[in-house]
Amino acid sequence: MTTENLTTLEVLLAEQDEPQLTAAAFKDVFRRHPAGVAVVALRHGDQPVGFTATSVISVSAQPPLFAFSLASSSSSWPAVSAAQTLAVSFLADHQGDVSARFATSGIDRFAAGGWTALPTGEPVIDGAVSWIRARIVQRTPVGDSYLVSLRALDAGTTQAPPLVYRDRSYHRLSHGTAS
Q1: Which residues span the membrane (predicted)?
Q2: Residues 94, 170: Cα–Cα separation, whole Å
Q3: I need a surface site. Which of 91, 122, 172, 174 has the fewest CB within 10 A?
């Protein structure tokens, strides 16, 4: 097969003889990269499903597209793979406990409350900086994960400062001005 028949990603993944970072070194780099913290939530049947994500990225303003990644081994993947819509709540700086709860496996992440269902059914986190309701437009397998691409349908915002995650701990942004 020639490279003309392969996508760019397939070509890159096929170049296995090149030196590459170990998983540990790769994780170490991204632990030092600060990221906003979000909770992705949806309905799966009658049950709410949600998880913490620091991989949410803006893709396009016109049309309004964004994405997140999710491991194919995640307990939330079956719900995301079947969903049509979901909501992403960007957490406020006082919501480290919410982030930790939605990152914990084997518990009812919604039992403690602190969330509200939108009229369309998707859960959003109360007191979050902002939220976006979105339609899933594509689920792309990449490595051992999926890149889930979304089209923004509706949103809400507050004036709360954001929660930031870096090097395995939560941080608050100073309220000073940027230079």
Answers
A1: none
A2: 10
A3: 174
